[in-house]
Amino acid sequence: MGSESAAVCLRCVDCAADHALEYRLACAACGGLLEIVYDLARLADAPLTQAGRTGVWRFAAWMPVHDAANFVTLGEEPTPLLAAPRLGAALGIPRLWLKFEGALPTGTVKDRSSQTAVACARQFGFDAVGVVSTGNAASSIATYAARAGLRGVVCCYTRSTAAKMAHLHGVASSVVWYDGVYDDMIRPFDEAVERRWLFDGGATRNAFKQEGKKTVALEVFDQLGRAPDYMVYPVGMGETLLAGQRAWKALEAMGRIARAPRPVSAQSREANTIAEAWRSGGPLRPKTIGYTVAEGTAVGDMGAKGRLTLRRIREQDGLAGDAADEETLAMQRRLARTEGLWAGPTGAVPLAAAARLAREGALDPDAEVVCMVSESGLKGDWPAPDVRGQQPSLDVIRRALGRGDC
Ligand SMILES: [Zn+2]
């Protein structure tokens, strides 16, 4: 039986050493990050999508899973790509498109990489897959592990939202609830990964896991029929930007598009290491971060992934922006009222950062811009708005409509 995949080897992003396509998390020669290399001629010969498939498997040739028996899916449809000229004009980005990832099964873009994480865990013979998370990644990995009949052993901190914790409690076969912060739990988790107790579903280094995220770019190309001028990504570990741009660069190399979109990194002001390095022209400097409403971008030390993200942004003439929490929350409401999309704060960061870049003149007002809205707001905890009840009557409806009489 022929392989579904056009993947051929792993390649080090630092020393370019090639490695066989096996479960390996770092370059044997220099310890650098690995990326999967594909046979572009084979991708170019095949149709972009495969009929009858769902989720990331519509693009099976672009994924590193060789046997369709290992695919895992919850019947995902392509997420909506919505023209937003009204909101765009108000923000100074009239040719604005929104890619709404809140429509995925667990309400976040993470469902794309969870499909490849769990399928690759199967491919390499693991019976458990895990991740350390503040909530979204853990629920997503656990969801697809459940669907595949594998154990989802996930680590989640006890300060996550009630909605996320309830979801995780329901779906995961085993949850390690931990006190403290992400950095405290990631070391013991990495040790468990080194011992091959479970498959690494995290974003720090696993080249196989991240591949599903490429499909956000492939879908935009399929829906739009061209490359936009810019694509705006939320950046925590940089995984979505790196994977999305690899797909665009492959389409460019194959001659399907003239030029890949310029990548735009969007971070919370609280955790804006890429934006600061991009503005100063200097190297990436880790920072100690406090609280931000945009939990998905709350990474102060991105490590090697961060250095690679910054390098790709510079190589590809990209931009990097940030948004303060109050700008993000204002954009969350504006997006809901203007376009009907209720995003979580992390999902609103790309739009808030893009609006700021447009105001500052860094984003060309004639450019076509695809902005990711990476998560639904339905899993957040929000204090009830401060409201005062009224006696039910026709009159209160009349006043709400601004009618003088009837
Ligand atoms: Zn290397």
How would you describe what is shown here?
The chain has 406 residues and is α/β, with parallel strands linked by helices. Helix content is 36%, strand content 16%. It is built from 13 helices and 14 strands. The chain has helices spanning 40-45, 85-91, 110-123, 136-148, 162-171, 182-194, 214-224, 239-253, 273-280, 303-315, 325-339, 345-359, 394-401; strands at residues 7-12, 18-19, 34-38, 81-83, 95-100, 128-130, 132-133, 151-157, 174-178, 199-200, 230-234, 262-268, 319-323, 368-373. Helix 5 links the parallel strand 8 and strand 9 (174-178). It starts with 6 loop residues before the first strand and ends in a 5-residue tail after the last helix. The structure holds zinc ion. The site of zinc ion has 8 residues, from loops. Zinc ion (ZN) is lined by residues 12, 14-15, 17, 27, 29-30, 32.
What's the tally of helices?
13
- Give the structural class: alpha/beta
Oligomer: single chain
Percentage of residues in strands: 15-25%
Radius of gyration: 21 Å
CATH class of the domain at 81-107 and 210-373: Alpha Beta
Bound molecules: zinc ion
Ranges with pLDDT <50 over ≥5 residues? none
Number of strands: 14
Order of helices and strands: EEEHEHEHEEHEHEHEHEHEHHEHHEH
